[in-house]
Structures are given as C-alpha cells and as structure tokens.
Amino acid sequence: MNYWLRIFRQxxxxxxxxxxxxxxxLKALDHSIKSYKKNETIFMExxxxxxxxxxxxxxxxxxxxxxxxxxxxxxVVEPSFCFGETYAFxxxxxxxxxxxxxxxxxFLFSIKNLPPCILENLxxxxxxxxxxxxxxxxxxxxxxxxxxxxxxxxxxxxxxxxTIPFNRExxxxxxxVERSALSKELGKMxxxxxxxxxxxxxxxxxxxxQN
Length: 211
Hints:
Blueprint: H1 5-10, H2 19-28, E1 31-36, E2 41-43, E3 51-57, E4 60-65, E5 71-77, E6 82-83, H3 85-90, E7 97-100, E8 104-110, H4 116-140, H5 145-154, E9 161-163, H6 168-175, H7 179-191, E10 195-198, E11 201-204, H8 206-210
Antiparallel strand pairs: 1-8, 2-7, 3-6, 3-8, 4-5, 4-7, 9-11, 10-11
Helix pairs in contact: 4-5
C-alpha cells in the first residue's frame, strides 16, 4: 500500500490527514485494488453499487448511452479523485457507467463503517462535483461552438500550454457538439491565432482573444 501513498496524500478523500491517519483509515476500510484494461467496465449503467472508486493510475471516464445508442461523456476522472459516491450512498440504480479510459488501477472501498474523516471529506467531494457539473452546464449552454470551446479552455486559468483529459470525440461529447464541427472550428481558431494545440494539449493566446 505504501506504493500508492503519494496518490492518497494528494486525494481529496484524505484531505487534512497525515500519513499515520491515512494508514489508519486504510486499515478501517473494506477495500481492494483492481486493475482494468482500457474500455473495461468498472461500474455498469443500470446496476446498484455499494462501493466507491478512487483512481490510482490512469483515468476513468463517466458516460451514459441514450436510447439511440449515442454515448454521452460527463467527465474523465484522474488519479487521486473518486467516482460513484453519490449512487453508492443513495442506493439508486446507476444512470451512468464508469469505464477505464486507459489501462488503470482503482482503489475500491465499501461505504460501510467509514471513518468520520472520510465521511466529512466525501461530503466536500460531493459539493465540489456539483460545482464541476455547473461548469459543464455553463460551457455546453453557450450558443456557438467557438464560445463553448473558449469557455471550457479558459476555465483552468492556466498560463501557457496545458493538457485536457479528452480526445476530440470525448471533447465533442462533453461540449455537446458534433466531432467534425468541433474539429473544423478548432482549426479555424488556430488559423486565426486564438488558440494553439497539438492533440490534447492546448494554449490560449489571450492577447489575441482580448483583441
């Protein structure tokens, strides 16, 4: 378990916990560590769960499939972050699936007999996810693809180059646009000097945006 200690230290699940407290919590939790291959299902839409996942390595995407078979991406969960906590606590049928976005390792733990500090941190995580959901709604509600893209890319407020967790198809799903239309608009924005990008690395050219 010491191998993953760095991830646990970074995780909001163990916020304000020192190494001894983390080790104590791990001993109290009914948990396991599992590896998943890319595109393997961790939690299936329509099921009920009594476990929460925490990504240790790789990434996990949260998505749903509508009645026409279209896939809708909600988010990509990166190392040190949790998924599934709301459905686990409410005991409701999953309306989304958790899928290995890459080969990954996941820390799975039961919601039974959780230490008080873990319960408190899970509440904070739930509140943070509401904020993240609000951000996604804000991005997707913009009237044009360009405005959606600029809204999303400007949210991290980072200088220079930064990496997003989506490929083009996933980015299009996240922003609720067609992939081909998104790629076309990104190309235009790059040509006009608004942004620069290479695969999933982007740079906002802020001065030109402001002009």
